[in-house]
Amino acid sequence: MIKGFIFDLDGIITDTAEYHFIAWKHLAEKQGWKFDREMNEELRGISRLDSIKVILRHNHLLGKFTNEEAGQLANEKNELYVESLKDITPADYLPGAKEVLDKLKKAGYKIALGSASKNAVAVLKYLDAMQYFDVIGDGTKVTNSKPAPDVFLYAAREMGLAPDECIVVEDAYSGVDAAIAGGFYSIGIGPPERVGHATISFDAMDKIDLDMVFAACIQKTSLL
């Protein structure tokens, strides 16, 4: 029986991808590195330290920086990103996201955030979305980022639920991998090549059909 939902933030509740891209692009140009939108897609759902390592690898610089130096660069990007978050308002929910949260809250489901971001609380406050969440699982609560299931396991534990009582809502390949690794059901948001391995997937948040979601979870359970 499903009792809780765990939502990723970026690309699910709101789209801060462009803010991340601009901040990474600014840092890369300052350093004289290559960085483009294709590379930015590889950063979806992973921590900022893992992100800087991806960028360094693409620029054949992995191993040329210590972990401390890489962390300093990631923090420099984060300062640019955090400054840009002030532009977010309640008008920046992705289509369908607020409606899904409203429906689940009114139906009595527990709701948690499961994000790699260490700025998740700030984003939720700018969106005026804190009232929806019983638990905030983010990059400040766990060490291992997705595809490790740690942030989802943390969220489930804090809600007092088992993984198989929860559905994770994700838009990243690594996020769906994390849900599977943790024993959760999952809703993938995005193209099949990215999230088609979820329990069920939809093109966008405003396409979610909860009856179809619950039916897919029952079918998956019957196959186990």
What would you note in describing this structure?
With 224 residues, the chain is α/β, with parallel strands linked by helices. It folds into two domains: 4-15 and 94-223, HAD superfamily/HAD-like (Rossmann fold); 17-87, DNA polymerase, domain 1 (Orthogonal Bundle), CATH 1.10.150.240. 47% of the residues lie in helices and 11% in strands. The chain is built from ten helices and six strands; from the N terminus they run βαααααβαβαβαβαβα. It has helices at residues 17-31, 37-41, 48-58, 67-84, 97-106, 120-127, 150-159, 173-182, 192-195, 210-223; strands at 4-7, 110-114, 135-137, 166-170, 185-189, 200-202. The chain has a six-stranded parallel sheet with strand order 3-2-1-4-5-6, sandwiched between helices. Helix 1 crosses helix 4 (67-84) and helix 3 packs across helix 4 (67-84). The longest helix has 18 residues, at 67-84. The chain is globular. The mean pLDDT is 95.
